[in-house]
Here is the input.
Amino acid sequence: MRTCARGGAARLGREMATALEPAPRAHWLPATLGFIGMMAMSSVNGPVRGIFSQEIVALRWRTTTSAIATIRLALGWVSTAAVGGDVVAHGGFSGLCSLSAGLAFGATLRLCSYLVARAKRARLVPTG
Here is the structure.
C-alpha cells in the first residue's frame, strides 16, 4: 500500500510483470496452473476435513475423532516422506504418482463403504 500511496503503481506493475514473466512459457504454464490449483485445494482441505470428520460421528466421540484424524494425517505425511524417496529412486515419479492415486482411490472406497453402511444402519434403527 505504501508503494501505491507514493505514486509507485507503475513500479508495482513492473514488479508483478517481472514475477509473472515465466508463466507464459509453454512448460511453465501447466506447472503454474497446477501449483495455483494445489494451493487453492490445500487451503480448502483442512476446514472441509475437519467439518466432515466432526459431522459423521456422535457428539461424545468428536474429540477422539479429531485427534485420530490429525494423527492419521501426520502419519500420512511421514510415510510419504519415508517411502517416497525409495519409490522415486526405483520407480520414478510416475511410480510415486501411481502409488498416490491408488492409495487415494482406496481411501475413497473405504469412506464410501463406511457411509453406505452407516446409512443402512440408520434405516434399520427405529427412531422414536
About this structure: The chain has two domains: 1-48, 56-128. Helices lie at 2-5, 9-20, 28-55, 62-124.
